[in-house]
Amino acid sequence: MSAGRLERRAMRVIGALDGHDPVPVTGSGTSGRVLHLSAERTMRCPADQLEAMVRNGWINLLQCPVSGRTLATVSADGRSWRKRMASGGAYADQHREPAHATIDGQAGLTRNMAESPLARLARPSGARRGAWLEHSHLVAGERLRSDFEFGQMGPSVSASWDPARTVRDAGGANGAREHVSDRAIDARARFNRALDAVGPELAGLLVDVCCFLKGLEQVELERKWPRRSAKVVLRTALALLDRHYNPPPPRSPRRMRHWGGAGFRPTI
Beta-carbon neighbour count of residue 121 at 10 Å? Predict the structure, then answer.
C-alpha cells in the first residue's frame, strides 16, 4: 500500500464521513469494509487502508453500546489533515477559508473568511437548522470591514520610518490627513456614513465584531451583556447595515382620492 493511494482514499473517505453522524461499518477479516453512509449510499474501503487511517488518528472506530455495531466517525485531526491536503499541504492553510471577494471595486481578490466571526454564524448549523445570519448580512459586514481597512483606521502596530511624519503632524489615526490617499479618505467617509445610518447604539458592536474581529463571548464579557445576547443584537445591527447598503426601492406615490355626492362642489 503506497502513501499516495492511502492519501487519495483517505481524502474520499473523510470527505464522505465529514458532516455525518457516526456511520455503521460492516465487514471483517481481510475483506474490504463497507461504510453505510445512508440507506441508499454505501462506500467500500480496503481493510488495511481503513486501519491505517485509524492508526494515523484521522478516523475513530467505536462500538455502539446498544446494538454492538462498529461505527466510524471523523476525528478533528482528520478534518485538519484533509483541509491541509486540499489546500496544498501547508499547515497554515488548514486554518484558512479563502474566498473570492470584490473590495472597493476591485474584483478577483481573496479574503480569509476563517478570521471573521460572521463567517461561522453565516454557515448552516445542521441539516434541520439554517444559518443564523443571512448571506446579505455577511456581505454587509465584510463591506464595512473593507472600508475600515482601506481607510487605514486600524491601530498602528509598528514604527513609521516615513520622514514626512514627525511628532508635530502625527495626530489622528495613522498620521495627518494630508498623508492619507484620496482612496482612504473616501473609504473613511463611507465607513462613517454606514455607522451613522446604523445609529450610535449599534455602531460600536459592528466595529468590534466586523472590524476588530472580536468574538461574541468577548463582546458580552466586555459590555457585561447576558450570554447569547450579542447574537440577537448583531443580527439586528447587520440588518440595518444591509438596508443602508441596499436601500429598498421607493414606493410609488399614492393618488389622492375623495368621495362626494352630486353638487358637493361650491359654485363660484
Answer: 21
